[in-house]
Amino acid sequence: MIRRSEQVADCGSEPDEIAIVGGRILNAQRESAGGPVPDELPKRASETVADCALERVREQRADRIGRLAARGEAGHVALGYIGSAVTTGLLPDTLKAYRLTSPDVRMHIVAMETPTQLERLSDGAIDVGFIRPRAHYPDGVTARVVQSEPLLIALPVDSPLSRAKAVKASQLRGMSFIAPQFNEAAGFAEDLARLGRVGGFDAQPEYRVNDFLTAVSMASAGYGVALVPQSIRGFAQPGVVFKPLSDFKDQVELAVAYRVREHSPCVQGFIDTALSYGGAGKRPGRTA
């Protein structure tokens, strides 16, 4: 009697060949039985043909995934991002553009602050980060700016300044400041300090929060004012207005951070897609 493992091993590579193999197995079973074939033998032959077909499908799928992975069209990308990557459109637009060319790549996306992203890039926990740029990066990690936007002041709608077309920094003297991302040594803490210097006062935050939406919510409730990126206006709540600063032209930037030596084709492809968002082009050393 032909063993089942031998039957599967003899599977052909095409449907017609699989059917031929099934017929040969059935004939062998008839010869082995030395007479009429019991009912269960044709059933076993049919099961073997089905096994062959399933094995062929698995082989074809594995071959396809291998070819896609080699071209960077399959695999896995772990992405970190800050909230402004959502409000500016960097995150959704990059994901949409990348999925058009690499729909089989699995994305793992986690919100985290810039310092944490740089740590996770360095230790390999994530592959790419959407961050606020820094003066220095961990060894083996770099970043390129892809977007910049002006800063606005978020005011309660009943503030006397809410009727002004633009606000001077000096007009904010004595107001309570709500500071987003207070636990970062760089970034908006520095922006707020510069705003105070332009206005001639010490801009120490009265309230410290973790994100811009919380800061805007507190401003709308009258707890103070907040220095925020322009894109946050798209997520505004009732009771708050946003005004430009006539004498404070600092802008905030978003950057794409990644490892200098990245070997995964699908991660390389995602980095190039993200860099093209702001016209930064491909990473140095990358070819089409």
Automatic annotation (TrEMBL):
UniProt name for this protein: DNA-binding transcriptional regulator, LysR family
Keyword entries, A-Z: DNA-binding, Transcription, Transcription regulation
Keyword presence, DNA-binding: yes
MF annotations from Gene Ontology: DNA binding; DNA-binding transcription factor activity
CC terms in the record's Gene Ontology section: protein-DNA complex
Organism from which the protein derives: Caballeronia arationis
Annotated ranges, domain LysR substrate-binding: 71-275
Lineage, highest ranks first: Bacteria, Pseudomonadati, Pseudomonadota, Betaproteobacteria, Burkholderiales
Family: Belongs to the LysR transcriptional regulatory family.
